[in-house]
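A.,

Following up on our hallway conversation. Structure tokens first:
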């Protein structure tokens, strides 16, 4: 396969990936609620003490909560460098201006365009709209920082598996109790299998259709 023929194939693969994903993926970006203490300590700008504090305080409910913790020891510029390697996905349908601006390289235009097309039903919709303003490489980079909440009763297996730290076992438990009538019921059922912190970590990625 030549470079000329490989490019369209790669583009199709990226589109297919986006079509099923609800949580953006970035190969070089760690997720602070699931990364090990050793992985966190290895992030440029962090150290063992900061890594330990992240582990002790998680799960973080939002990127702003993580930013508040890191702000105790790191400057704004230092945190921006950290966020090139470590970030908590922001909810495209609920993120505030302040949260969006935590994404490295973002500005007022990102805030305007991200918020203009709300509510998003799928990450693929956001991806398509953002391609009006940025090229594929940049939209794919930004995608690693965002997610669209999954509907507990209708999300496909492939979409559920994009939740950071999701396992085949938890996928099975997600589906076992359908249909859910409330997120609180989902939390109650998942608490049979994982601790309260893990329940809360997973819950930030899901919703009920009526919510």
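Then the amino acids I'd put at each of the 211 positions:
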């Amino acid at each position: 396969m030549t470079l000329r023929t490989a490019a369209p194939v790669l583009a199709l693969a990226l589109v297919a990936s986006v079509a099923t994903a609800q949580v953006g993926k970035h190969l070089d970006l760690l997720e602070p609620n699931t990364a090990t203490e050793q992985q966190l300590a290895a992030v440029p700008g962090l150290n063992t003490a900061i890594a330990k504090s992240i582990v002790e305080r998680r799960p973080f409910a939002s990127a702003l909560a993580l930013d508040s913790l890191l702000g105790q020891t790191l400057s704004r510029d230092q945190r921006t460098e950290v966020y090139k390697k470590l970030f908590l996905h922001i909810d495209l349908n609920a993120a505030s201006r302040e949260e969006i601006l935590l994404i490295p390289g973002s500005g007022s235009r990102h805030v305007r365009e991200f918020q203009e097309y709300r509510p998003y039903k799928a990450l693929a919709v956001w991806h398509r709209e953002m391609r009006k303003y940025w090229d594929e490489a940049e939209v794919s980079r930004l995608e690693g920082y965002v997610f669209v909440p999954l509907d507990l009763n209708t999300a496909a297996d492939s979409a559920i598996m994009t939740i950071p730290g999701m396992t085949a076992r938890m996928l099975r438990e997600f589906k076992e109790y359908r249909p859910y009538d409330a997120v609180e019921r989902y939390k109650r059922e998942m608490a049979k299998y994982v601790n309260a912190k893990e329940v809360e970590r997973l819950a930030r990625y899901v919703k009920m259709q009526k919510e």
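Residues 137 and 155 are 27 Å apart (CA to CA). Curious whether your intuition agrees with the design.

B.
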